[in-house]
Amino acid sequence: MGGTNVNLAELIGSRICHDLISPIGVINNGLELLEMVGTTQGPEMELISGSVGSAGAKIRFFRVAFGSASDQPLGRAEVTELLKDVESVGRVRVNWHVTDAMPRNQVKLAFLALMCCESAMPMGGDVTVANNGGSWTVVGVADKLNIDADLWKNLPKGQFANKVTPAQVQFALLPQTAASMGRRVAAETTSTRVAIRF
Length: 198
Description:
Blueprint: H1 3-37, H2 43-66, E1 73-74, H3 76-87, E2 92-97, E3 102-103, H4 104-119, E4 125-132, E5 135-141, H5 149-154, H6 169-180, E6 186-189, E7 193-197
Parallel strand pairs: 2-4
Antiparallel strand pairs: 1-3, 4-5, 5-7, 6-7
Helix pairs in contact: 1-2, 2-3, 2-4, 4-6
């Protein structure tokens, strides 16, 4: 998968997220209007509202992780708000230890690394994202990890012995995207910790 394929994948990601974010926003607005007039209440409404909120949060996250990204800065407040929404529908707590606004394409790499860590944490855990002097570190810690040895061992090269599934696409995309930005990915694992640097 070369640079052209990475760009094509990013354009596809951007297009899908762009086309889905508007209708989900409209559904959300409709639900708010129904709540205001008191038309429907109860567990059914809560289920629909929660599902729409979850879908919206994931699409905003995926838009950064899989969409095309420039070096336009993303501020800490915007990133932490987005992560808070995603966190509320998942099992992983994210600690964003980056105080400055960062280029969107670097945040994209951090989000892909976060997804890699999350895939190893089926029971949940904590992921800490830090940037020191331009070098990023994304560390996932949990009592119980489920580490796919092939994915983690071969993450730096982005060439895997087994076929990558849709649920694992971040492992293929992270090293390719990093390489297109002149960055190299390093990964390490222990029984309770996974770490990615780029």
